[in-house]
Sequence to fold (233 residues):
Amino acid sequence: MNRRSHAETHMVHRIGWLRAAVLGANDGVVSTSSLVVGVAAAGSGSAEILIAGLAGLVAGAMSMAAGEYVSVSSQTDAETADLARERRELAAAPKAELEELTQIYVDRGLDRDLAERVAAQLSGHNALAAHARDELGITETTAARPIQAAIVSALTFAAGAVIPVLAALVSPAGKTSLIVAASTIVALAVLGGLGASAGGAGVLRGAVRVTFWGALAMGVTAAVGTIFGVHAG
Fold:
């Protein structure tokens, strides 16, 4: 009887960089497009619009990198503190920690005898890893990586921000808002679909979700730009 290997492809290993990538690219497209559309709606010239877009690209990429690094570092600090406390508890009260792990497995559906044997075997292999995974929910796959998040966010923000900047650069006078908005809608739909696909979710749903919120952000910014542009004139 032939046996075929059962290979599975899971998406959870991408969670560390995928979240930062999607957030960075989406923010790059939306915030820079909103800035360009708002400035254009205020009646600014092509040079001012282009400068605003480039400034938004650079400032946004640096802000995303700094923000992701700080926020993910805070998560890392919390994880490190929890692991240090768990390590101390294992050293001070190993029997109580073993019982705690056993109860976790009982609560998940194992009978008491099997839960005790599983807890004892896993604790004998690596007690801290067992508690980190099953008590704290910390694994190698989902562990925070601040530098990775910062780099990915900055690069994807810049990549997303390039789209409205290029659209503004090639737009004829008086058509900047329309062309930037149209190119952004297309970019957001593609980005939403790619992000959903990379995460194993429905492509259409991801595209609609990202496009809707991006279009709303541009619409609000364009309205503000128009209002202040009219008053400024």
